[in-house]
Amino acid sequence: MISKPRGRRGFLKKSAALAGLALGSAQSVAGQTPTSQPSAADTPPKNPKELAKELIAYGERSHFVTSARVPVAERMSPDMYGLTFHVLTPLQDSVGIITPSSLHYVATHRGSFVPDIDPSEHRFMIHGMVDRPLIFTMDELKRLPSVSRIHFIECLGNRAQARHKTVQETHGLTSCAEWTGVALSLLLKEAGVQKGASWIVAEGAEEVKGSSSIPLAKALDDCMIAYGMNGEAIRPQQGFPLRLIVPGFEGIHQIKYLRRIKVVDRYYMTYDDYGHIQPDARAAALTNQIGPKSVITFPSGGQQLLGPGFYQITGLAWSGAGAVRKVEISTDGGQTWHAAELQSPVYRIAHTRFGLNWKWDGKECVIMARCTDELGTVQPTRAEAAKFWNKPLDASFRVPGNDNTVQPWRIASDGSVHNGLA
Amino acid sequence: MGSRSVLLAAMILAVGGVGLAQSPTFGVGRAPTAEEIRGWDISIRPDGQELPTGHGSAKEGAQLYVQKGCAGCHGRSGSGSQAPTLIKSDGTTKSSMPCLAPCVNDNNVMALHSPYATVMWDYINRGMPLGKEGSLKPDEVYALTAFLLFKNGVIREDEVMDAQSLPKVVMPNREGFKLPPQAWKHGAPRLQNYP
Is 50 exceeded by the pLDDT of residue A227? Predict the structure, then answer.
């Protein structure tokens, strides 16, 4: 149901372009079909030369490619106020490990409007328990030594449920990009963190001023403030012009539109922190940092095998603790496991692509993947998680903290693929 | 402090008297003014240290709840409307919105779920009302917070909320929050023995 509005913009663009080609003039397409709908069709079509010029400046994908993000079914985006909430990345179409910036998942504090920030007006300030509070312009930040790192970001709400049909719905709140910016440790050193400091509070410049508490040890370890994403400026939906990257921590910590970091001596309980509080210390331990997790993206829910024969099973694995060391795949519902090949470069705290050559015999089966990270921690099944928490394993079991449990896909004898949790 | 001031002065001289202090290694950026910090620093910690002076009561808040447009999105009764539930309902009205994290609908409303009253103050101050965020004055934020606390049965109607009284409010979910047993450490597992 939620995949209906796919490719509307592309379709309109395409229609406009085709109309332009056919008419060979600047005649308005909107003039042919009067409509109050504001759309790309309202603007006069571009002639082929103008179009070519535009594409020379900034390319676009083939109109045959229709892979698209969709809002989560639970809460429509945009909502009645125009707010954007959670938008899922189409993992079923993904190849390699990088999520294109245009398809990176989106989640916002409270639901928010994407702010239109002039980078020349934007400032970033460090203050609080530091010897030298500092404020930087974007140009100044770009003069500092830069780092580029490939990291996934996953929302804590990335939680597979029985009613989900596709891997986009079960796992689409994770994405992976190359981030470029300045190491936060460098900036904190410049500011001079005072004795007794133990946390930072980071805050965005958007209308709701999304804010989050992060342990100082993590801030000094591998956090960065990024102005680049996949080789260009971060996109507005992802935090233009500046975003805090807290590698391996849940998405809500990756503060977009970053304007301020306050060094403090305690957990601050911001609004965003409060939303994720846990009544159990063990659940709290499983909340900030993402555990080892993997999912098969092909074959996955909603896809169709074209009969028995060869298929490469492929998917993505990641861990907030570091690099993925091992991925295993079962094609018999978890009875036996086979080592998958790690196909991509294996980066710390990044999506890692895996594959396993497989011959489907045409019989119904359940396939699943599990990964092990550099700490030796193994991704649990739902049954293992339920046992740890001493809870019955039924539909009501909600994995406390980050749900990193194994995702089964059931392949029916007709080749159709279904959510194994259903 | 004294030696630090000397050091700072020395650094300013070292970068050629450019003016305000820059980052010591790279000489980039500048020291924000006290006003710049004050203007931006809206963080409020659980013990309320940064709360501004001002005060407000539930009665004042009841009027502001309508005047400032809160009722328009959250409903006159604070529940059963499009925006998240603010006032515990009598069970007959149900919000049309799903319960997302932070779950603030139906009988798990913010005022009851938040372990500290300061979180409510902070959020109203920074994030409301929609489209006019940051426009409320401290007195108004205290009054709206008092109104929601009163309507949810946390404080009495005549209790005045200010920088001293608000952090002392004992929220129903005060014990419903724990930090991880160990502070975050590079290379340490999230939780020992978790499968």
Answer: yes
